[in-house]
Amino acid sequence: MGGLPHNLKIEIFQGYFKHFGHIEDSVILQDKRTHKPRGFGFVTYEDIKSVNLVLKMRDHHYIENKWVDVKSAVPIEQMQEVLLQQRAKAKQLNDQNEDSAPSS
Q1: How far does CA 29 lie from the centroid of its chain?
Q2: Which end of the chain is more exposed for a tag (fewer CB within 10 A), N or C?
Q3: How confident is the model at residue 103, as a pLDDT?
Q4: Which residues have a Cβ under 8 Å from the Cβ of 93 and sit 6 or more positions away?
């Protein structure tokens, strides 16, 4: 969730997004040095249906009169796996192209 209001309290953040389903976890990210909010956060829902509902209503999320940009996020563990698979596939395609290239 991006574009969060400045100094948004976690309770308000959770209170808004709990209307879409049971929340497993939520966080508003803060600067490590200043501890000020960075303007974005994450919500983990128990059910994918909640995620789909939030995304479907993408243009209608307002907290404290500020539009909040919602996007789907992929856990880092899954992202690393996807990147490894993409690299392996790219290497395989590159190897195939080198094998089929005419020799000079």
Answers
A1: 13
A2: C
A3: 62
A4: none
**What confidence score (pLDDT) does residue 5 get?**
93
* Separation between Cα atoms, residue 32 and residue 44, nearest integer Å: 22
The residue with greater pLDDT, 78 or 36, is 36
Q: How far apart are CA 100 and CA 42, in angstroms?
A: 46
DSSP string, 31-98: -TTT--EEEEEEEEESSHHHHHHHHHTGGG-EETTEE-B------HHHHHHHHHHHHHHHHHHHHHHH
Q: How far apart are CA 56 and CA 64, in angstroms?
A: 20
Closest CA to 70 of 20, 11, 10: 20
